[in-house]
C-alpha cells in the first residue's frame, strides 16, 4: 500500500512539475513577444521627433519600428496618401510577425491582413503574437510556389489590398508575376531585390520550387531578382516605381490610380543602393594575410564576382 502511495505521489509530482515547466515556458514566450512589441514601438518613437517629412523625398518618409530598414515609414506614408483604403495587407515572407513590413500596420494601425511564411517555427511564433491580440490577421504556414499561389491568394478578400509585400529570398519574381497575372492589383507593392545583380541587369534566379538561398551557394548571395527585373515586370502592369530603401533592401511601387493625380510627379526616389544590412559570407568580417581583422566593403561589383558562374534567367 505504501509503495502505491509513493508511486502516486511521484507521478503527481512529475505531472505538476511538467505543468509548471510548460507554464514557465509559455510565460517566457509571452514575455519575449511583449518585449519585441515594446521595442518596436520604442524604435519608432525614438525617431518620431527628428523626422521631417518632405513629400518629394522618399528618404524622409523612412522609419523602422518592426521593419529592418525604413519600410514602416514608407508604407505608413504611402497609405496615408491613398484616395481610398480597404485597410488590408498581404505579406509573403512575414517571418515571426514582428520583424517584417506589415507588423506596423497590424499593431499600430489596426489593419487586417495575412502573414505567410514557410518556416514552421517562425509561423508558430507569429501565431502566438497574433492570438488574443489581433483578431483580423491570419497566419499561414506555406512554402509558396507558382502552383499553390492561386489557392493562397483566395485568402485575400480584395483584388487591390492596400499593401502587398514579398520577401522570400528566392523565387520572388515568379510568385509576384503569378499574382499579377491572376488579376490582383495591390495599391502598394514592396518587393525585396538582390543588389548583387547590380542596377542594370534584368535577371532573376531560375525557377525551382525547392529553391533555397543558402543551399544554392554558400555565400548566400544568389537569390531573388534584380531591381531592373522588378521594375520591368511591374511597369508592364502599369505600376510606378517610387524608390528603394536607403539601406538597399526593398523596392516600392504604386498603382497611381489609387493616389491623387500627380502624386508621383515630384518624388525624388532612390533608383539603386547596395544592400547595406544583409549578413552573408561576403559581408562578414575576415582576417587578411597578416591576421588583421577587416570588414569588407558592401559592393555589388565584388560580390557579383562570387556568383558569376551561376546560371540566371534573363527577364
Would you give an account of this structure?
- This protein is 35% helix and 14% strand.
- The chain contains nine helices and eleven strands.
- It has a seven-stranded mixed sheet, sandwiched between helices. The protein has a two-stranded antiparallel sheet with strand order 6-11. Strands 9-10 form a two-stranded antiparallel ribbon.
- α4 links the parallel β2 (112-117) and β3 (137-141).
- The longest helix is centred in the N-terminal third of the chain and has 47 residues, at 2-48.
- The N and C termini lie far apart (80 Å).
- The model has no long low-confidence stretch (mean pLDDT 92).
Architecture in CATH? 3-Layer(aba) Sandwich
The average pLDDT score comes to: 92
Given the C-alpha coordinates, what overall shape results?
A: globular
Largest sheet: 7 strands, mixed
- Report the structural category: alpha/beta
What is the CATH level 1 assignment?
Alpha Beta
Q: What name is given to the CATH topology?
A: Rossmann fold
